[in-house]
Write a structure and sequence with these properties.
The chain has 2 domains: about 10-210, Rossmann fold (3-Layer(aba) Sandwich), CATH 3.40.50.620; about 215-430, Beta Barrel (Elongation Factor Tu (Ef-tu), domain 3). Helix content is about 35%, strand content about 25%. The protein has helices spanning about 80-100, 130-140, 150-155, 160-170, 190-200, 210-215, 230-240, 245, 250-255, 260-275, 285-295, 300-305, 320-325, 410-430; strands at about 15-20, 20-25, 40, 45, 55-60, 65-70, 105-110, 145, 170-175, 205, 310-315, 330, 345-350, 355-365, 370-380, 390-400. The strands form 3 sheets. The protein has a 6-stranded parallel beta sheet with strand order 5-8-7-6-9-10, sandwiched between helices. It is elongated.
C-alpha cells in the first residue's frame, strides 16, 4: 500500500527510491509538486527539491473532484506526437472552462517510475519523471495524475483502471493516442475507452499519429527552426570570426562548425526520406528516438522530439580540472534509469535560474585524466558564479566530436576554444528553446 493512501492531499509527502535515484513528492493546495532527481554521490543521497510553479500532482489513490480534461499515456519521450496530444488537452480544457465559467484543469496521467522495470527489459528512460513534469508544464498541463507501475498495477483489468479514474476524478473529456493500450496485458485500447465513456456521456478524443513528415513540414518543429540560408550565414559568420582559433586543426573545425548546418538539414532530409518512395508513412516512436540518442544522432532525435533533448540535475563536485584549464564546468551525474546519450562533445544550451547560456557539454568518461564514470560535464560560456548544489537544465543541439584523449592539457584547451565556436554556430541554428 502506498504511504499516501488515506492521507489528506494537502499534507502528503511521499519519498521513494527508484533505480538509484530518490524523488521527493510534496503536494500542497495550488502550489504543486516539488520533485527533483537526486543522484547518488559516494553512496549517499542529498535530497534536493525544486518547485514547478502552478503544477498540481495527484497520486492515483487520492480523490480530486475538480474538473479535468485528461490525457492518457506514459509520455516517456514527450515527443512530437505526445506534445500534439497534450496541447490538444490544454486547448480543450480552456474551451470547456470558457463555456462553463469554471476552471477545468488540463491534466495528464503518467507513471512516476520506469514502467519497463516490470517487464524486466532493462530499457532506460528518455526523460525521467521530473523531466517529464517540466515539459508538461511548459506545454500547459497544470495537473498530473501519477501512479507507480508495479506488478500489481500491471495486472489491473482495464475496466477496473477506468473505474478507479472515474470514481476519483471529475473527468470532462479523455484524450489518447491511436496506439494507447492499458489494462493487464495491454488488452484494452481506443474502442474500450469509447464504449466505457459513452455510458457516462464523457467525450473521448483519439488523436491521430504524428508522422515523420509532419514534423519536417511544420516550421515550428523543424530541425533548424530557421531557413537554410540564415543557417549558412550564421555558420560562415562564426567560422570567419574564429579563424585564428581554428587554424591548427582546420579540417576538424570545419567538420564541427561549417557542417553543423548540413547536420540539421541532413537530419530533416533523412527523416523525410524515410517516408519517400511511395512507402507507408511511419509514426514517430519513442523506440526510434531512444536508438538515435544512443547513437549520438542528436539533430535527428531533436526533430522527432519537437524540441532539444535535455537533462536536468544538481551540479555536483568533481575533480575541478576544468577550472585549472580556464574552463570551469558544471557536472551532472545522470539518473541510473536515464538513457545514456552516446559519449561525445555536444553543443548545448544551459539554463541557470531560467536564463539560457551557450555551452559545451562532454557527455561520458574523461580518458585524458583516466576517469571512466559517466558524467555530463558542461562549460557555460558567459557565466560566472558558484553552481554547486544548483539545479540546471542542459539542452543538446548538435554533436561536435568524439571524446578522446589529448596528449597534453594545452591541446585540450585549444580544442575547447574550437568547441565553443561550434556551439555558438549551433545556437544560431537552434529550434525555439
Amino acid at each position: 500500500m502506498s504511504p499516501l493512501k488515506g492521507l489528506p492531499l494537502a499534507v502528503t509527502d511521499e519519498r521513494a527510491c527508484y533505480s538509484g535515484a530518490k524523488e521527493a513528492f510534496i503536494t500542497a493546495n495550488r502550489l504543486a509538486i516539488a520533485a527533483q532527481l537526486c543522484p547518488f554521490i559516494g553512496g549517499e543521497t542529498k535530497k534536493t527539491i525544486y518547485y514547478l510553479d502552478i503544477m498540481r500532482t495527484v497520486f492515483f489513490e487520492n480523490n480530486f473532484k475538480s474538473g479535468l480534461v485528461l490525457g492518457l499515456g506514459f509520455f516517456d519521450a514527450v515527443h512530437s506526437g505526445h506534445r500534439a496530444l497534450l496541447r490538444a488537452v490544454t486547448e480543450y480544457a480552456k474551451k470547456l472552462s470558457a463555456a462553463s465559467g469554471e476552471k477545468i484543469h488540463a491534466a495528464a496521467f503518467t507513471f512516476s517510475n520506469n514502467m519497463t522495470d516490470c517487464r524486466k527489459s532493462g530499457e532506460k528512460l528518455i526523460y525521467t519523471y521530473p523531466e517529464r513534469l517540466k515539459i508538461m508544464q511548459e506545454i500547459g498541463i497544470d495537473t498530473v495524475v501519477y501512479a507507480e507501475m508495479t506488478p500489481e498495477f500491471a495486472a489491473t483489468d482495464g475496466i477496473a483502471f477506468l473505474d478507479a479514474l472515474t470514481s476519483r476524478y471529475a473527468i470532462h473529456a479523455v484524450f489518447a493516442g491511436e496506439d494507447y493500450r492499458f489494462g493487464a496485458g495491454g488488452r484494452c485500447g481506443a474502442d474500450t475507452l469509447k464504449n466505457y465513456f459513452f455510458q457516462t456521456g464523457t467525450e473521448v478524443k483519439i488523436i491521430d499519429f504524428v508522422m515523420r513528415t509532419d514534423v519536417i513540414s511544420d516550421k515550428n518543429t523543424s530541425a533548424t527552426g530557421k531557413n537554410c540560408d540564415a543557417d549558412i550565414r550564421m555558420t560562415v559568420k562564426i567560422s570567419d570570426k574564429n579563424t585564428n582559433a581554428t587554424d591548427k586543426n582546420s579540417d576538424e573545425n570545419v567538420g564541427a562548425v561549417a557542417k553543423i548546418s548540413a547536420k540539421y538539414a541532413g537530419a530533416a532530409a533523412k527523416i523525410s526520406g524515410k517516408n519517400a518512395g511511395g512507402g507507408a508513412a511511419v509514426k514517430i516512436s519513442s523506440s526510434e528516438i531512444r536508438t538515435l540518442l544512443a547513437n549520438g544522432n542528436i539533430a535527428e532525435a531533436n526533430v522527432l522530439l519537437g524540441a532539444p533533448y535535455f537533462i536536468c540535475g544538481e551540479v555536483v563536485h568533481c575533480k575541478g580540472r576544468g577550472g585549472s584549464l580556464g574552463f570551469p564546468t558544471a557536472n551532472i551525474i545522470p539518473a541510473a534509469d536515464k538513457l545514456k546519450l552516446k559519449e561525445g562533445v555536444y553543443a548545448t544550451v544551459t539554463e541557470v535560474d531560467g536564463k539560457p547560456y551557450v555551452s559545451v557539454t562532454s557527455a561520458g568518461t574523461r580518458p585524458t585524466f583516466s576517469e571512466y564514470e559517466y558524467v555530463a560535464e558542461t562549460f557555460i560560456d558567459g557565466f560566472s558564479g558558484d553552481l554547486y548544489g544548483k539545479q540546471i537544465t542542459v539542452r543538446f543541439l548538435a554533436r561536435l566530436r568524439d571524446v578522446r584523449r589529448f596528449p597534453e592539457k594545452e591541446a585540450l584547451r585549444e580544442q575547447i576554444f574550437r568547441d565553443i565556436a561550434a556551439a555558438h554556430a549551433a545556437y544560431g541554428m537552434r529550434m525555439d528553446i
